[in-house]
Specification:
Radius of gyration: 17 Å
Low-confidence stretches: none
Oligomer: single chain
Helix content: over 70%
Structural class: mainly alpha
Largest sheet: none
Order of helices and strands: HHHHHHHHHH
Strand content: under 5%
Distance between the termini: 45 Å
Number of helices: 10
Length: about 200
């Protein structure tokens, strides 16, 4: 992680000790879904480890913030792609990925949002793209709610049941676990469609 991002990461972790930490979690989840580089998982894990009994409440706060932030990203893509949307793509050097995402939306529509919402793929690019490509806002919201909720509630469940021991495991294998879960989920829907 290069230096400025590491400082942001450390700053996000420091919010766990603030008396308004749940509000900070909501705002971080909102911002990450449309423009901010640090995922809310970092703060969610830190807060949930502090009080595992609140893990599911914190996952709900994170989910709501993320879905609303996703709608903000959608609005950027829908109404401000030429200005704010291009600026965000410039900052993160996501122009090439954005063109690839155009193809994904044409081919997979709601699945593109759901997979980006659950996996470590930069979700903000997909929220902006959904608006830019005029995806149905209700389908976008449902895919976001499902995928972001699944991601954050899975983390909450792991922390609630396994406590601090699971943190190292999550940090080390989170990307692999989310991809495995998505493969299983897509496989499940394919089996249902074939049945």
């Amino acid at each position: 992680m290069f230096h400025p991002i590491r400082r942001l990461y450390d700053w996000v972790l420091s919010l766990a000790h603030h008396r308004h930490a749940p509000l900070a979690l909501f705002l971080l989840a909102f911002a990450e879904s449309s423009f901010f580089p640090i995922p809310p998982d970092v703060l969610l894990i830190a807060l949930a480890l502090g009080i595992p009994a609140r893990a599911f409440r914190l996952a709900l706060i994170t989910t709501i913030g993320s879905v609303l932030g996703g709608l903000a990203g959608y609005a950027i893509g829908y109404g401000f792609m030429a200005s704010a949307g291009q600026w965000i793509l410039d900052v993160y050097h996501f122009h090439e990925q954005f063109e690839k995402i155009r193809t994904l939306y044409l081919d997979y529509d709601i699945w593109a949002v759901a997979i980006a919402g659950f996996t470590p793929i930069p979700y903000k690019v997909f929220t902006i793209a959904a608006g830019a490509f005029d995806m149905d806002v209700w389908r976008f919201t449902l895919a976001s709610l499902f995928s972001r909720g699944a991601r954050f509630f899975l983390l909450a469940w792991l922390i609630h049941h396994y406590g601090a021991a699971i943190r190292v495991f999550i940090d080390r294998y989170f990307n692999m676990l989310t991809l495995l879960f998505m493969v299983l989920l897509v496989g499940f829907f394919v089996l249902i469609a074939m049945w």
